[in-house]
Amino acid sequence: MYTIVLEKSVIKQLASIHSTDYKKIKSAINDLANNPRRHGYLKLKGREAYRIRVGNYRVIYEVEDKILKIFIITVAHRKDVYE
Predict the structure, then answer these.
(1) CA distance 60 to 71
(2) What is the mean pLDDT of each run of 10 residues along the chain (83 residues)?
(3) Residue 38 and residue 14: Cα distance in Å, rounded?
(4) What are residue 62's DSSP bridge partners?
(5) Euclidean distance between CA atoms 51 and 42, whole angstroms
(6) CA–CA separation, 26 vs 45, rounded Å?
């Protein structure tokens, strides 16, 4: 089982998300602890990161398999996430 580490900026991003979307995102992030490369994940080009879709939001994260940690880098609306 992987340990999930949230960046400080992610905590602020999550605080600004509506509660119904927040619950879905929180559940998806917790599911990553069991399977960081779950169905629907996508490897990003140009960097060692992945993304999952949660409704209109995207969760960008990096996986460190050697130390069993997942670093959540960004959680943002799909129109803003890649800027």
Answers:
(1) 9
(2) 92 91 93 90 90 93 94 90 66
(3) 21
(4) 71
(5) 5
(6) 25
